[in-house]
Write a structure and sequence with these properties.
43% of the residues lie in helices and 10% in strands. The chain is elongated and about 80 Å long. The chain has a two-stranded antiparallel sheet with strand order 1-2. A two-stranded antiparallel sheet has the order 3-4. Strands 5-6 form a two-stranded antiparallel sheet. It has 8 helices and 6 strands, in the order ααββαββααααββα. The protein has 206 residues and is mostly helical. Strand 5 and strand 6 form a beta hairpin. Helix 1 crosses helix 2.
């Protein structure tokens, strides 16, 4: 079997990209033109249209304007159409910032979307935690950003992030957090459970 030439590999890559672009094209048309599509309410029902006349012109535009595997088509103006002047290829972080339903938080005198706050050094929680807090919590925004989640309870209590348990064992590989705010290694935690079990057993003995 002969080895593929560089030209053969390039052609195969182009074919693969066009196949993925065909899927993007079909999905755009569905959410803009098919009332039964689950995303139609956010696209077609708002009057958003696909303005490329056919797939070939869309694919040619995509290949000439930065399409790469892993990127998604993104409308710069969320109220605008799918058309060359209003579209770009973006990663998931850029798209999250540009969503029409993106939640914004005001803290420390600044207003930013959640994706931007997560990258701010004052924020100590991840994206999903901050989204949940913003949706359900009545905390002040500053507390949402600066209050660590439970696995980082030690930092919130001002005890730092320990590298050894109270018995001096290494916490690098495994740690167990308890309600007193202490970290124990797995071995010490298991020993504590066994000791409590034997204490209860002795207390119940006749």
């Amino acid at each position: 079997m002969t080895e593929p030439t560089p030209l053969d590999r390039e052609r195969a890559e182009v074919r693969q990209r066009r196949q993925k672009l065909q899927s993007v094209w079909n999905q755009m048309k569905q959410r803009c033109r098919n009332p039964n599509d689950p995303h139609y309410a956010r696209y077609g029902a708002r009057g958003i249209e696909v303005r490329w006349p056919n797939f070939k012109e869309f694919a040619d535009w995509a290949m000439a304007n930065g399409y790469q595997p892993g990127l998604s088509i993104d409308r710069i103006d969320n109220d605008g159409h799918y058309e060359p002047a209003n579209c770009r290829w973006a990663d998931i972080t850029t798209q999250m910032r540009n969503r029409s339903d993106n939640r914004k938080l005001t803290a420390f005198g600044e207003t930013k979307c959640i994706a931007d706050w997560v990258e701010d050094p004052r924020c100590v929680v991840n994206y999903s935690t901050l989204v949940q807090r913003a949706a359900k919590s009545n905390w002040p925004s500053e507390e949402m950003l600066t209050t660590a989640s439970q696995p980082n309870q030690m930092a919130r209590l001002g005890r730092g992030n320990p590298t050894v348990c109270p018995n001096g064992h290494d916490l690098a590989k495994t740690r167990v957090w308890n309600k007193r705010g202490d970290y124990y290694c797995r071995s010490c935690s298991n020993e504590q459970r066994r000791a409590r079990y034997h204490e209860r057993k002795a207390a119940c003995a006749p």
